[in-house]
User: Fold this.
Amino acid sequence: MRPLQFSLSSIPEKGLTVDVCLSEADLRPEGVAGLDVQYIKVAGLLEEIGGKYLFRGTVTGAYRRACDRCLVVMERTFATSVLWAFEEGVPESPWGKYDRDADHEPQTETSDSSIGYFTGDELDMSPLAWEEVVLAMPAKCLCRDDCAGLCPNCGANLNEEHCGCSDRENAEDSRNNQFAQLLKIFPDIHPGMSSKEE
Assistant:
């Protein structure tokens, strides 16, 4: 039995307290690429309400990734409050219903991602937990908001050292910069530069 799979008969009237620490591999669906997640914890209360089951709790964890600017490996934590409802049955296809006899395009139906399904006596919260982990994955990872990144010339980490490449570039011929055409038209805007130098 998977870490987030529970027998419905084992859920007491007052509800079942869930406090499970698991790895990314415990949740990842078969055939899906892995994520750089250090740990995942699902905690909360699973209870029966009118023939359905409700889970209120949190999904927490930490991603371990390289900073998008300086490539230093960092850890970024996440915490999400969740409210999942589980009902008996099999989920419909995410592509919606398609009437083969109709002339129109298939109509897709919106589905609530916080609803899970179960059959028999077993309820598995893994699919919804995996979805929360994927949604919590940061689109951009920075070790800090003002990360200076790497020098494009020598590759030095500009958060840790000043390589001097930018100083040398600034000392080179200013005609290589983006204002070169303006200097041709207005040579007097740059002290010391004449039209003959152009």
